[in-house]
Amino acid sequence: MPEDSIEHIDFDDLNKRAISQPLVNHIFTADPSAHVFNGQIFIYPSHDIDTGIPFDDLGSHFAMEDYHVISLASPSANAIDHGVALHVNQVPWAKRQMWAPDAAAKNGQYYLYFPAKKADGIFQIGVAVGDKPEGPFIPEMTPMDGSYSIDPAVFMDEDEKYYMYFGGIWGGQLQSYRNNEYDVNHQEPVAGLPALGPRVAMLTDNMLQFAETVREIIILDEVGNPLLADDNDRRFFEASWMHKHNGKYYSYFIPPKAHLLA
Fold first, then answer.
1. Cα(96)–Cα(64) distance, rounded to whole angstroms?
2. pTM of the prediction?
3. Same domain, yes or no: 14 and 129
4. Same structural domain, 85 and 62
5. Residues with catalytic function
6. Buried-most residue among 13, 93, 151, 217 (CB within 10 A)?
7. Are 59 and 128 in a shared domain?
8. Beta bridge pairs of residue 220
9. Looking at the structure, do residues 22 and 124 belong to the same domain, yes or no?
10. How many CA atoms lie within 13 A of 6 on its CB side?
11. Phi, psi (5° rounding) for residue 75?
12. Other CB atoms within 10 A of residue 54 CB
């Protein structure tokens, strides 16, 4: 949203008319993931800090230089902001634009997964480790080998193996990858060709790297054919998420049409 539009929004009026009141209103947040750790709800959003730069699809208008972790003792409790859990200045390889993160827990340790742009302007995904769900988190010195794009989401299967789902088109740069290799000359497939899908890889036992080569998820239509690039109501755009219920896996994501309407 352009800066001049933000200045003219009556947030008090929006809050009064909202179906539910916002959990956070002292900072701008977006794209949260939520988990229950130690009997409490922990929310991991991105943090939007206005830069004054005109709006663009690359996210240049928001600095997004740190992460705050929000917790609730119960769904009806007041939200607590635990302050800065990780700042871009603490991450040796990252320069700017720390977009939507996710978190996971294993063996008493907590892992914050986050995308950020390197000095060359290309996104990779990093991981930081903490002793508490709210942080603080200590980042690894380098990004995860073989990682790229944005929107990491970590899923633990019933066999206690962990998988990361990720990817986002346009500002998320997924359109620039083919066979896990970056080329700025790559573009989105044209109408009639198969659409790009989100990516997935199993994590290593220590939760710090991929245990396998990154794979593309092919999303099929009702007759078993891959969704096409011009199927903007259904094809993948960003924000993949995995859920399992009664032995079936359900993948959620934002399609292009929903993004354009936001």
1. 7
2. 0.91
3. yes
4. yes
5. 31, 238
6. 151
7. yes
8. 226
9. yes
10. 14
11. -60, -25
12. 10
The secondary structure of 137-204 as a DSSP string is -EEPSSPPTT--SS--EEEE-TTS-EEEEE-BSGGG-GGGEETTEE-TT--PPPTTSBPP--EEEEBP
Of 96, 120, 140, the residue that ends a domain is 140
Residues 126 and 239 in one domain: no
CB 71 within 8 A of CB 42: yes
What does the pLDDT read at residue 55? 78
pLDDT on residue 56: 75
Q: Could you say which DSSP state residue 30 is in? A: E
**Whole-angstrom Cα distance, residue 64 to residue 88?**
9
Regions of the chain short of the pLDDT cut 50:
1-6
Domain count along the chain: 2
- Looking up residue 75, the CATH number of its domain turns out to be 2.115.10.20
Residue pLDDT, tens place only, 144-160: 999 999 999 999 999 99
The answer, yes or no, to whether the previous bond of 75 is cis (omega within 30 of 0) is: no
* Amino acid 262: pLDDT: 54
Tell me: the pLDDT tens digits for 118-139?
Answer: 999 999 999 999 999 999 999 9
Whether residue 148 is found in the same domain as residue 96: no
Q: Which of 122, 140, 158 is the last residue of a domain?
A: 140
- In eight-state DSSP terms, residue 72 is E
Judgement on whether residues 133 and 173 belong to the same structural domain of the protein:
no
pLDDT of residue 161: 98
- Round to the nearest angstrom and report the end-to-end CA distance of the chain: 10
